[in-house]
Amino acid sequence: MNTRIKDIAKLAEVSIATVSLVLNDKPGVGKETRERVLKLARELHYEKPGTSTKQKHNGQVVSPPTGIIQFLKIASHGHTVNRDHTVFIADYIDGIVHGAKAHNYKLEVSSFSGTPIEEILSTIRTDPNLRGAVVLGTELSRDDVIAVHSLDIPVVFLDTFIDFLPFDFIDMNNQDSVYRAIEHFITKGHREIGMVRSSVQTRNFQLRYTGFLQTMSSLERPLQGEYIFDCDSTFEGAYNDMGQIIQSGTKLPSALFCTNDIMAFGVMKAIREAGYHIPNDISIIGFDDLPTSALMDPPLTSIAVSKWEIGNMAVTRLANRMAHPSMPAVKIVVGGTLIERESVKEIPG
């Protein structure tokens, strides 16, 4: 038998008029009463008269959303999750939105900047309708990841990768991608190869530095410590730090791999202002292939990773985790592609 308004009113110990106000999202009902009525309506599978459990989308019958999932965008310090990376994160969200639609979930996006992790978790725990979460782990520490995973809902982390934790991670393949960048330098005849690494240590940045060291060893190239430079991961920070490095009289190599495109943009500006020409004097490769890379002077060679694919895969993994809570954790890495432009010079043999 279909649930009626008077059934809910009787169980909630309120009037039929009160239930009608709540179910039609009208004002005039206190918060506690509203929540009690909505909870009963969900538990009793109440449907408004004239509605159906099926809806039409693009002319086809589809089921209503089966639950709510959240994308948690967390900026702990803001050196990497900031306005410079808005497009980067938007690509993740596009993939997540597609995945949510494919798996019939309603998606909510929550952003936190500088908020203590416990406060974030307290906020999430107050939502009784939340079934799972995809979490941007870019700026999360190992302890932060462990704390977020303690939520009473399934969680998948993207844009980070932490060894030995039995959690679900979807990330880019940093080390393989760095190999492609360094191999490209070598193919173009470069012998002096350096790296601009980030002074802000996120997990992905650490993996790129590790990948640089491993690649140089694998390709039997001498690792010259004086060609490894530490710069801030913001545009202004990288510009200022590289400017100071050049002013100190430090010799630069013929090729520099930058930890990400934002840093590469700042480094390029500092190098040009110091009188160097790119790529005739110094060749540069970035990482992320942000849209601005193609508009730089010269256009920046960079590593492209499908953030859309990572976001979409994260939702698929979350759906599997919700359906099978006891399944083993997985760590998935998505490979990158070298996008060759004009910032790398070929040196004749």
Explain the overall architecture.
Helix content is 39%, strand content 20%. By secondary structure, the protein is α/β, with parallel strands linked by helices. The protein has three domains: 5-49, lambda repressor-like DNA-binding domains (434 Repressor (Amino-terminal Domain), Orthogonal Bundle); 65-173 and 307-334, Rossmann fold (3-Layer(aba) Sandwich); 174-304, Response regulator (Rossmann fold). α6 (142-149) links the parallel β5 and β6. The radius of gyration is 25 Å and the shape is elongated. The model is unreliable at 52-62 (pLDDT under 50).
Set down the secondary structure blueprint.
Elements: H1 5-12, H2 16-23, H3 31-43, E1 55-57, E2 60-62, E3 68-75, H4 86-102, E4 106-113, H5 117-125, E5 130-136, H6 142-149, E6 155-158, E7 168-172, H7 174-187, E8 193-198, H8 203-218, E9 228-231, H9 235-247, E10 255-258, H10 261-273, E11 283-287, E12 301-305, H11 307-323, E13 331-334, E14 336-339
Parallel strand pairs: 3-4, 3-5, 5-6, 6-7, 7-13, 8-9, 8-10, 10-11, 11-12
Antiparallel strand pairs: 1-2, 12-14
Helix pairs in contact: 1-2, 1-3, 4-11, 7-8, 9-10
